[in-house]
Every structure is written in C-alpha cells, then in structure tokens.
Specification:
Layout: E1 2-9, H1 15-20, H2 25-39, E2 43-48, E3 52-59, H3 67-81, H4 89-92, E4 97-100, H5 101-112, H6 124-138, H7 144-163, H8 173-183, E5 192-196, H9 200-211, E6 215-220, E7 235-238, H10 242-245, E8 251-254, H11 265-269, E9 280-284, E10 301-305, H12 316-343, H13 346-370, H14 375-403, H15 406-420
Parallel strand pairs: 5-6, 5-8, 6-7, 8-9, 9-10
Antiparallel strand pairs: 1-3, 1-4, 2-3
Helix pairs in contact: 5-7, 6-7, 7-12, 8-9, 13-14, 13-15
C-alpha cells in the first residue's frame, strides 16, 4: 500500500493561484468519488482551506498516476464549462509539491499541528483536517489507511496543543490583521466594523473584532437569518443590506465560501469612498477571493488579502516548542507505522491463531468426551476453551512482535505458519 499526496499552499503560490485549485465541499465530494472510481484509488481525501489545497490518495504499490494531471483535467472540465481558458499543467507545475509514504506522513502530522501554517500553531487546521476526513468518510472515498493516518494526525495535534506552549497558538488570520493595523495606529475601540459571512472563519473574525471593543455587525443570508447564530455582542443585518452599512464602516472583512465576489469595485464605488475622511480598510480572508482586487484601486480604499499576514521570525522560545512538538509527533508517527506494517500480517496471525486453537481442541477432545457433562455443557466448555486459548495465543504473538525487530518477528511468524500449516 502506498500513500501519496500533492499540494499547493501559501509558501508556493499566491492567493489567486491557490484559488484556481480550491474546492468547495460539494466539488470535493464529486472529485473524490470520480477519481476513486476511475483510477482504482483505494482511498482519497481532499484538504482545501484558504492557505492550501492537498489531494491525498492511498494506492496499491504498483499503481502509478500523475496527480497533477488528474487535478488539471478535473479543473479544466470546470473551466471549459464556464467558458474559461484551460489550465496548462506545465504552467502550474512549479506551484505544487509532491510527497509520498514517510515524507507524506510526516508532512500531515506537522501540518495538522499548525506548524506549517501562516500563523504558527493556529488551531483551525486541526478542525479542517478532521472535517476533510469526515467528508471523505461520508462520501465512502476513504479507506482504512487514510482513515487511520488522518485520525492519528489529529490525535497527535491535540497532544501537541495540550503539552506544548506556543505563544500565538490560538491566533487566527484576523488576529494577525488586528495586530498589524494596531501597529499602524488603527483605533478599533472607536471603529465600526462589518463582517461579511457567518461561516467558521467569519465567526472567528467577528469574535476577534468584538474583543477589541469595536462595534461589529455580521451579515447573514436572508433565507437563513432565523437559523444562524452570530457571536455574542455583535449585531446582524441581511447580506443584501451590506452596501447600505459600508459608508458607516471603518473596516470591512469578507470571509465566505461564495464562488462570486461579495464586493466588487463597482459596488464599492457606489458607496462613494472618495468622500471619506480616512480610508476604508477592506480585509479579504477568502480563497477564492471575496473582494475584487481592483477594488483596492479606489480612492480611500485600502485592500488586504490573507497573504498580507505573514509569519513573524521564529524566536528561541518557538524553536524550543517546535523541538518538544517533534518528539511527540515522532512517537505518534511510530505508532502509525507499527499499525501500517502490521496490518498486512493480521490475516496471517489470525490463521495461525485459528490453527493453534484447533490443534489444542484435537488434543483434548477425548478428555472432554469423557467428562460427565451434558452435550450443551460440553459445547459451552469448548467455546470457553477456544476463547481463552485464542487470547493466550494472540498475546504471545503480539508480545513477540513488540519485543523483536521486524525481521526476527517475521521469521517467528513464518515458523509458526510452517508448524500449523502441516
């Protein structure tokens, strides 16, 4: 069994390039289902966030396929249907990183801890990786290898979060934006802010803004206005009323999963930003973009996107925390490899156990036959002996596995197979 992935992220590509390869949940399900059926993939998971898109597959080891070509074919079908020019594989090769087997496993464990995020050790990625696994599971496109790998990565990340202190572990892109704007003199506690979008990222952005003392309003879609909750202390308006509020705003954040712009240059121009005494700060946290880039060309509009919030330089304290995390991740990865290497042995171990239990029964069945018991009692006794014998044998075999190196254990297993194969 082989594990392979291909990915694009904030270290290799701009927000607009990443947007070309992003997936909504619906399109993720469709792509995973088609790829698994067409290419004979054992398992497939897509991780698609604002900062990255990754395709994970498990295959039989002799399977070979070009994941980037597979991805480009899928995206080009979408683009052609929308009347857009196709993507040339050669033009985007430089943006993608390919990993397989141990390199891929290590990447996922570090990624899930937030140690490959723009904001070091941020918490959102754990949820995002878990949600990617859940989506694949619900769509029947995962397999036991990717299932265990992703679950172990999430478990390892939670251990790191519990045992290792990263000073900025709970920050989000919005927190980074707030820190940057504060350093430039922006007064949040005297500001009116609007957050477009009430998904997970929108809620986090609204919470962060509300904690600064700003007056925060969150948009909700009209058809959902009676169903959704907004962060405590925030006001709400219908999404269709957003332009009416903009003239009163000092800062607007957009963080939706919409395939279309929530704000365009034309729409913002209607709010007459040139009449403002100070610039309207617009922050676009979405991938694909929510705010048309040309909107930043308007007078008195300052537009930022998610790539404007970069990592700070690594301090000695952070390096020490990274070293702690590495120890924890190493142990968790070792456990995954033990499971992975042992999964192919399970059927062989099971056969040895069944043969050994049968051998024991054949040696004692005459004694059981002479016991002064009813037939039903003899059957119950045999069942009890079979169960106990099976447990003893499995304890012996797994004890050998845990105390011998791999080659020595394989020699022992082969010897047992010879004995009980006679």
């Amino acid at each position: 069994m082989g594990i392979r992935m291909i990915g694009i992220d904030h270290t290799t590509a701009s927000v607009d390039t990443r947007a070309l390869f992003s997936f909504t949940k619906k399109r993720s399900m469709e792509a995973m289902g088609e790829w698994k059926a067409r290419f004979g993939i054992s398992g497939c998971i897509i991780v698609s966030t604002c900062n990255r898109m990754e395709i994970w597959i498990s295959t039989e080891e002799d399977e070979d396929m070009d994941l980037l070509e597979m991805l480009c074919d899928w995206k080009n079908a979408e683009r052609i249907a929308a009347g857009e020019a196709p993507i040339e594989k050669g033009d985007c090769e430089r943006y993608f990183v390919r990993r397989q087997d141990r390199e891929a496993v290590s990447h996922l464990f570090w990624l899930t801890c937030g140690l490959k995020s723009q904001i070091l050790a941020e918490d959102q990625i754990i949820t995002q990786v878990g949600e990617a696994l859940a989506l694949s599971r619900e769509n029947f496109t995962t397999d036991n290898v990717l299932e265990v790998l992703f679950r172990k990565a999430v478990t390892a990340a939670k251990k790191v979060k519990t045992e290792v202190v990263f000073s900025r572990a709970n920050e989000t892109a919005m927190d980074q934006a707030i820190s940057m704007l504060k350093s430039r003199g922006f007064l949040f506690d005297r500001s009116t802010c609007m957050v477009i979008g009430n998904g997970e990222m929108g809620k986090l952005a609204a919470q962060s803004l509300q904690q600064t003392g700003a007056d925060v309003t969150v948009t909700v879609r009209q058809y959902r206005s009676g169903m959704v909750q907004i962060p405590l202390g925030c006001s709400r308006i219908n999404y269709g009323e957003r332009l009416q509020l903009i003239p009163e705003c000092d800062l607007v954040v957009s963080a939706t999963a919409s395939p279309n712009y929530t704000l365009t240059r034309e729409l913002l121009a209607r709010t007459h930003p040139e009449r403002r005494k100070s610039p309207l700060i617009c922050i676009d946290l979405a991938v694909p973009r929510d705010i048309e880039p040309e909107a930043g060309q308007l007078e008195q509009v300052k537009l930022y996107d998610i790539d404007d919030f970069k990592l700070d330089a690594m301090t000695d304290s952070v390096r020490a925390s990274m070293a702690q995390a590495e120890v924890i991740l190493g142990k968790e990865m070792d456990e995954f490899y033990v499971w992975l290497e042992g999964r192919d042995m399970i059927p062989r171990i099971q056969e040895v156990k069944e043969s050994a239990v049968e051998d024991l029964y054949l040696r004692i069945h005459k004694v059981l036959g002479r016991l002064p018991l009813e037939q039903k009692e003899k059957e119950q006794l045999k069942e009890t002996i079979d169960t106990a014998a099976g447990k003893v044998i499995m304890k012996l075999i797994f004890g050998l596995r845990d105390n011998l190196n791999k080659n020595e254990f394989m020699d022992c297993l082969e010897g047992l197979e010879e004995i009980y194969g006679e």
